[in-house]
Amino acid sequence: MNTLIVLGEGLARYTGWWVLALLRWRDPKAPMGPRRLAVLVAGMPLFLALQLLHAVCLLLDEILFPRYRGVSLAGSIVITGVPRSGTTFLHRTLAADTTHYTTLTTWEALLAPSIIQRRLVRLLARLDRLLGRPMGRTMILALPSANGLQQLGDFDRRVPPRRRQRLLRFYHACLQRHIYADGGRRRLLCKNAAFGSWMGSLRTILPEAHFIVCVRTPEHALSSQISAVAAAKPLFGVATGSPAWQRLFLDLYAQTLDHLAALLGSWRYGTVAIVDTAALRRRPGPTIRAVMARLGIPETPSVTQAIDGLGRSGASSHRHSVADMALDREVLHRRLEPGYRRLISLSHCVGTST
After folding, report:
1. pTM
2. ∠ CA(126), CA(128), CA(132), 5° rounding?
3. Which structural domain range is residue 101 located in?
4. Of 95, 263, 112, 303, which Cα lies nearest the Cα of 186?
5. How far is it, in rounded angstroms, from Cα 307 to Cα 284?
6. Do the beta carbons of residue 253 and residue 215 sit within 8 Å?
7. For 96, phi and psi rounded to 5 degrees?
8. Which of 169, 168, 188, 181 is nearest to 72 (CA)?
9. Bridge partners (DSSP) listed for residue 81
């Protein structure tokens, strides 16, 4: 029943946000133009049709594979923090241990969230090894003024309790489906940089999980994020260079940092590790080993080989500058720095930028 409620609620919300986006021609974050209008008119119905397909398949799972609900998620590793802070680098290193860990990939989450879809896709993949990997874009890039989507960026505090519990039960079931479809022998290695604001809630459904929080000097993290999603401008017609649009991401970053600093101060030592990107760049191997030791994660031969193959991480090829942002640097510092400093001063931190 929860699956049906969440799916129905989601379809209703996205339809409403789509209609509002069509009516808001002068939205400063996404002014309507010919390309944006074409994407909304043609793209959203396809998206909604895909969600209907997912709904049918997820409901079929309840009939065909009811045993998935008994799958344990104990020992899962959850990597989160803020976007552009080294989560992918850390995840890629730990994911080298394919014997013990499994990851929910982008294509699985977007195109085959159900067990029945997963099995069908894998059957087709055996026949056609040319299966590609779709590029995902967060819906907030297409619908930046949707208040419900913005609430998801401050999940623990802004999403109403009843809806929050429904979404958490649904997400937990999706993770169980993944482990069940994978065979049930490996543990979950989950990476989502946008889940920093979900951590308090995630701990209620994953009480035995190991949490890793990646952070970075926030002004540079935000600048990198703004630059990285600039590709949304030609696709969705959003005003990525406008103060209104960049302020949306500034609010999300500031809320997440403040929330994590307040939340993690009460967590028991050894349940979470905070790692600063600067430490990963200077000494990636020792830093990752310190994270694993802090959380009691065993270092397997595959991970040892991956860590030993790491060198000192140099500068990223991605070029961006805080000075190029539309927001005043003093405002950025005032909004972001206090939460970041409180966070890296916690005893959970295994690396700082200083």
Report:
1. 0.87
2. 110
3. 2-351
4. 95
5. 8
6. no
7. -60, -25
8. 188
9. 214
pLDDT digits (tens, 9 = 90+) for 171-214: 999 999 999 999 999 999 999 988 999 999 999 999 999 999 99
CA distances from 297 to 40, 94, 271, 293 (A): 45, 10, 11, 6
Q: Which residues, at least 6 apart from 100, have a Cβ–Cβ distance to it below 8 Å?
A: 186, 187, 300
Structural tokens at position 299: 């270092």
DSSP state of 101: E
Give the separation between CA 251 and CA 248, rounded to whole angstroms.
5
Single-letter code of the amino acid located at 173: A
Strand order from edge to edge, sheet including 272-276: 101-102, 187-191, 77-81, 210-215, 272-276, 349-351
User: The tokens of 345 are what?
Assistant: 């001063």
Structurally, the chain folds into a number of domains equal to 1
pLDDT of residue 32: 84
Q: Tell me the pLDDT tens digit for each residue of 281-330.
A: 899 999 999 999 999 999 999 999 999 988 754 445 556 777 788 899 99
CATH of the domain at 285: 3.40.50.300
Dump the DSSP string for 200-215.
HHHHHH-TT-EEEEEE
Separation of alpha carbons 156 and 264, rounded Å: 13
Bridge partners of 43, per DSSP, are none
Burial class (CB in 10 A: 0-12, 13-18, 19+), 338: middle
Q: Is 296 left (phi over 0), alpha (psi -120 to 50) or beta?
A: left
